[in-house]
Amino acid sequence: MNLVNLVLSLLLPQFFLAIHQIFCNNTTTYLINRRRVSNPDLPDKRFGEFGQIEFMRYALIGLKRLKEYEMISCDYHIHTQLSGCADNELSVKKIIQFQQDLGIEAIGITDHDYSYKSKVKTIQAAQQAIKEADPAIKVHFGVESQMLEYQVTSITIRLASYFDYVLMAPNHYHLRGIAQPRSFRDPRRVALHEIYMFEAAIACPLTDAVVHPFLLSPRVFQFSAEEIAAFGQEMMRNIEQKRLLYQLDLVSQRGLGIEISPKMVRYNQLHLVEFYKLCLERDVKLLIGSDAHNLKQLEELSLLAPILEELGVTEEHLWHPKE
Ligand SMILES: [Zn+2]
Ligand SMILES: [Zn+2]
């Protein structure tokens, strides 16, 4: 980290906080600041020169235009303690309470399909937990599933029928049985594989929305922040445009959602901005999902404000589960 970055990283969060205290009562503004300063999930070393400057750029735009984006009023991708990978204290009740306090109006509880081992019993218990929380907001009951390869998904038709909607992940490479790119170090190979899995998710009749497409998980790729940013850009350049547009037209025709998640900021994946521009050009609806695995990550939704602003997203561009 050079000297300018060091000074920026020390001074800017305090500057934001001061501005916030003077001008706003908005929780989300504060969250942007607090995240920079104290989120233990985000060690500073993951934000190298590029990441930090980009992050600050988005934080600044977010500060300017946040009011307009109080429209971030839904979050359709949230895990509970039922997902083994989530905080084991993260109950449905806590999530609902937390989201109500943040001013979110509609949410979706979406644990992994493999969490429902003794299926009907676990499903009934989860539905009961939502009922008992007595939500003042709309709470949908969804599930996150994944493509293993073309025409093979991890969820059965029977299991899917219990849920309001199915989120389909095309790139859960950390799980066993998922088709992998030939190389995780060659952006051209990763691009070929990502588009193949994206096509597979869209072709699957059980899919209601595709989550985190073209988002590279740092856990899988093991790159530094700068490397993953550059790799993401290079991968996106290698996605065949015609092939992608054809798929986006299918998504639009079928009324599927494509997730936009604050993970793209957390993971330094700003190559996705170009992807979402294409989605909007082709009338694809965007699903807002935090993919939160703990309470802190629920707050990170505010990081999307500047991205949505840049993209010009309005309510009419958003995907919601069917009633
Ligand atoms: Zn996922
Ligand atoms: Zn998830």
Q: Could you please describe the fold and organization of this structure?
A:
This protein has 14 helices and eight strands. It is α/β, with parallel strands linked by helices and 323 residues long. It has a single domain, classed as Metal-dependent hydrolases (TIM Barrel), CATH 3.20.20.140. Strands 1, 2, 3, 4, 5, 6, 7 and 8 form an eight-stranded mixed β-sheet that branches. Helix 1 packs parallel to helix 3 and helix 7 packs parallel to helix 10 (241-254). The termini are far apart. The model is unreliable at 13-51 and 63-68 (pLDDT under 50). One zinc ion (ZN) binds next to loops.
Please indicate the percent range of residues in DSSP E strands (runs of 2 or more): 5-15%
Class in CATH? Alpha Beta
> How many angstroms does the end-to-end distance come to?
50 Å
Helix content: 40-55%
Query: Which of globular, elongated, flat, extended, rod-shaped describes the shape?
Result: globular
Largest sheet: 8 strands, mixed
Short description:
This protein is of the alpha/beta class. Helices cover 47% and strands 13% of the residues. The protein is built from 14 helices and 8 strands.
Search tags:
323 residues; alpha/beta; TIM Barrel; 14 helices; 47% helix; binds zinc ion
